[in-house]
Amino acid sequence: MDRIIGNGPVKRRVLVVEDEMINRELLGNMLSSHYDVVYAENGKAALDVLSEYRGAFSLMLLDLRMPEMNGDEVLKKCKSDPMLSNIPIIVMTQEKDAEVESIRAGADDFITKPYNMPEVILARCERIIDLYEKKTLIDSAEIDALTGLYSGDFFFEYIRQFEQFNDSPMDAIVIDIEHFHLVNEIYGRDEGDAILRNIANTIRTELDKSYGIACRPSADIFFIYHPQTEDYSALEDHINKEIGADSLSSAKIRLRIGINKNVDKSASPEQWFDHAKLACNGLRRDYTKTLAFYDSALHEKQLYHARLINDIDRAIEDHDFIVYYQPKYGIQGEKPVLRSAEALIRWKHPELGMISPGDFIPLFEGNGLVQKLDRFVWEEAGKQIAEWKSKYGFTVPVSVNVSRIDIYDPELENTLLGILKKNELTTKELLLEITESAYSDNAARLIEVVNTLRQKGFRIEMDDFGSGYSSLNMLTSIPIDVLKMDMKFVKNMLNDDKSLKLCELVMDISRFLDVPVVAEGVEEKAQLDKLRSMGCELIQGYYFSKPVPPDEFAKFIEKEI
Amino acid sequence: MITVDALKEYGADTETGLRLCMGNEALYLRLVGTVPEEACYAELLNSIEAKDYDKAFDAAHALKGVLGNLSLTPLYETVSQMVEFLRKRTDMDYSEMIEDLNKKMDALSVLCK
Fold it and tell me: What residue spans define the domains of chain B?
């Protein structure tokens, strides 16, 4: 308070209660330079003055031995009166024995007689006033006036203090009354407040059974910090009763409880409740439950995904995405021949390191961001084909992925043609891979787009063939140039008869459609030999090479020329 | 006219007394001037005579406080002595102490004139 009261014309008011005129004058002389001093000659007069000023005093200096009413009686009256109990009282006495009794009655400090030096007396007055002013501020900020629970800031501070000494597992609980504002609107504010108080009482009763603290951080939300407990259904039932969940159900008012069980003590208390709140908010969509638990693994995955989504644009800009190339070899001749390559994206994150495509491709496919990646790969591959072409006079056609969402892009054809034009390439040099499952999604649209692309001369490879759900009927009408056998079949073909049969089936279909097959995931010579014997023309896999950066891939080209 | 020097000669610890008045000499001298007229002084004399030791203790106690605050050492010493007897409500002959007190009080009154 010193910021506004210390330097301005306003002075704090001090009451001096002393029957001896000489003592009053001495104290008045000391105090009046700092304070506005009011005097009372005895206890009774003091109470009159207090009531006249409605308790607006920063301090009372109280003599114990006085006629009419003694100081100790004033002391008792003041400390039991809520309006006066926040006035600090310094007792003035010559008697050692009186000190103990006064401190029990609530005196805050002593001044002995004969008086100490004025500097000492002033310092003691100042200190006790400061303490009380701070305490009053703290008291008013500590407690939520409506419910008597803690306010949010203090709640977290007390948790921190408690946790300095606590090793037991604890739960963080968030209680949210959905659409509580409707209670206020329908039944009035007083009724709403009464319900909130009742909920607070219910929570207090629960806490009394063990230990813990609670607060009301905002209108209709409660936080509880509580020793780990298995069953919260009693709390749930009691609060549901308080909000009259049955009778109010038509008004959509309902309870949601989110619990972060056994909080992670290495995180901050605020985070514990953020996580409990996540569980609580998860219930918004689920009307069958009122209670949910925070799942840290799920949350971490969500956070990780959010991070990846957030970083994608910068990663494209900074070239954190790198296009790798995996060679495809023709195996029908005596010696394998490099025929083409598949472009595969890699993410070298500056902080997270190498991120597996398995982590980000399905995520970006799900939210459509894969379109940005595809475009990036097309651009990079186009440049790369042109670079190798001019360096070696040798074209390595590169197949790139065309995702389901690209099919719906009206600019798809123009974009692809634009890239070819920019790099002086033909449609024979950039191959397009479309996954089989995209065909079953919206076959009519896909067939239309693929037909248009093929008319322009593009060659379409059906990726992961065998993993989707293409009907045999659809296969006959699909415009397709190459089948890529799902690598799962290849992986198991030598030790699983069913996989082998499926490989043979894919070969049969390819003969029926009159298109070549690329077998992916080939790692061993035995697999290669088997596939060759089945009539498979093209092989891709670790047997020849894993996907490699462009400069490493150049070595494969150099071998061919 | 009372002066600080005269009070010092009288035996008062004027330095402490003045400090308690925050150096306000006029205040100090004015307050000292009221001591001979102090109600508790008269009260003390009367209640001793009436052997009402409860009242006498209260009066002596109050007087001691005032004298201490003004550092009127000669008077303070006498009254402090009386307070200790009166605290135990000792029924004894206080005349010698009263005589001493009156003598010192009279001397102060003379200084104050």
Answer: 4-112
- In terms of CATH architecture, what is B4-112? Up-down Bundle (1.20)
Strands A59-63 and A36-40: unpaired
DSSP reduced 3-state for A19: coil
Q: pLDDT digit string (tens) for A326-385?
A: 999 999 888 999 999 999 999 999 999 999 898 899 899 888 899 999 999 999 999 999
Burial class (CB in 10 A: 0-12, 13-18, 19+), A531: buried
Model confidence pLDDT, tens digit, residues A510-528:
998 899 999 999 999 999 9
- What are the residue ranges of CATH 3.40.50.2300 in chain A? 2-142
Torsion sign (Cα): A101, A107, A111, A114:
negative
CA–CA gap between residue A391 and residue A213 (Å, rounded): 73
In this structure, the number of other CB atoms found within 10 A of the CB of residue A235 comes to 23
Cα torsion A102, A104, A107, A108: sign: positive
> Which CATH architecture describes the domain A2-142?
3-Layer(aba) Sandwich (3.40)
- CATH 3.20.20.450 range(s) for chain A read 324-345+369-560
Contact B40 A114 (CB under 8 A): no
C-beta of residue B5 within 8 angstroms of C-beta of residue B29: no
Contacts of A26 in chain B (CB under 8 A): 20-21, 31, 69
B68 to chain A, any CB pair closer than 8 A? The answer is yes
Q: Which pTM was predicted? A: 0.53
- CATH superfamily, region A152-294: Reverse transcriptase/Diguanylate cyclase domain (3.30.70.270)
Tokens standing for residue A311: 């970083």
Nearest to A439 by CA among A393, A494, A480: A480
Q: Which residue of B has its CA nearest to A121?
A: B20
Which residues lie below 8 Å from residue A80, measured CB to CB, with a gap of 6+?
none
Q: Which residues of B touch A94 (CB under 8 A)?
A: 61, 64-65, 68
Give the domain A324-345+369-560 fold: TIM Barrel (3.20.20)
Please tell me the distance from the alpha carbon of residue A509 to that of residue A471, in angstroms, as a whole number.
Answer: 12
B72 to chain A: closest CA residue: A114
